[in-house]
Amino acid sequence: EIVALADKIPGSRVQAEVAQILTEGPASSRVSQQALERFARLNLALSDFAAAQDYSALAISCWSRLQQLFDVVACGSVSRLNQAGLVASCEADIDGAIGMLVERAMSGSPASLVDLVSLDQLDQSLNIWHCGPAPRCLADAKGVVWDEHFDIGVRQQGEWCGTGAVASLQFKPGRVTLSRISSKTQQLFALSAAVLDKPGYQGSSGWVHDFVMQGQAPTLKDVISMIYNYRLDHHMTVGYGDQEAAYLEFANWMDLTVCQPTPYVTYLEPDKRQIMR
Questions:
Q1: pLDDT for residue 270 is more than 70
Q2: What band does 125 get if pLDDT is binned at 50, 70 and 90?
Q3: What is the crossing angle of helices 244-254 and 94-107, to 10°?
Q4: pLDDT confidence band for 146 (50 / 70 / 90)
Q5: Peptide bond connecting 64 to the previous residue in cis, omega within 30 degrees of 0
Q6: DSSP assignments along 235-269, one per residue
């Protein structure tokens, strides 16, 4: 249905949208004009669809259904929808969309979904990243570049040709809240961290450290241990500002079990496994 809507959008409207996209950030030389036009078509189709249905959030099946049907990634569109005020989550993640709605209500600013993809024990930092769906207001002073996808595409004559376009940006310095609300376990995980001025990866990326959870200062190992012990989903919501107290209040309203800060151990702790049953 979304693809059919995208195909029907008049060319003049598509070209106007492409022009607007390029005012928000430059396109990499690796992103073709066709990719930009499909990016614009998808963005307009999703916006029109949400407006027609009166939706305040979308959980988009971007991996890999959309590429099969329209040969485009949704990352850039997800970025722009969130920037415009319509919450959009990746990979049909409904819990993620709910978390982003909650975060936006608390902070008053757009949020994003991230994966936890790397760690650096030297400076006790954790890399938060995703393919490129973060809204540009979360970018550092360099802003956003519309770039090819790092993993979806083809290799031609030894050169990687990714499908465009994603919002490639580095998260700006500041205090953020990382959270996950799980409908499967009725649990809430939330802590705050500081974004380092440190180069990340292609896509939407940043390094965080200086963790604080319920007045405690967990180490990097503690944080990783809690993620595994509480069986957290691989997506987390990130938003700027320390919203942990508000999340704890929200958990009381919604009768959610709050994940407690615990130290690193080398085994799965029985009490946390019991919570999951």
A1: no
A2: very high
A3: 120
A4: very high
A5: yes
A6: EEEEEES--HHHHHHHHHHHTPEEPPP----SS--
Position 135, amino acid:
P
What is the arithmetic mean of pLDDT over 158-175?
A: 90
Give strand ranges (E) for 121-265: 125-130, 145-156, 159-170, 174-182, 187-195, 204-212, 235-240, 257-258
pLDDT tens string 179-205 = 999 999 899 999 999 999 999 999 999
Handedness of CA 133, 205, 199, 197 (dihedral sign): positive
User: What residues are paired with 184 via a beta bridge?
Assistant: none
Spatial distance between the Cα atoms of 135 and 83, rounded to a whole number of angstroms: 5
Residue-level pLDDT at 275: 53
Most distant pair of Cα atoms in the chain: their distance: 60
* 3-class SS letters over 119-161: EECCCCEEEEEECCCCCHHHECCCCCEEEEEEEEEEEECCEEE
**How many whole angstroms separate alpha carbon 245 and alpha carbon 71?**
42
Looking at residue 274, what is its pLDDT?
A: 54
Verify cis geometry, omega within 30 degrees of 0, for the bond prior to 165: yes
Cβ 30 vs Cβ 73: under 8 Å: no
- Pull the structure tokens for residue 68: 């099969």
Q: Both tokens of residue 43?
A: 């963005």
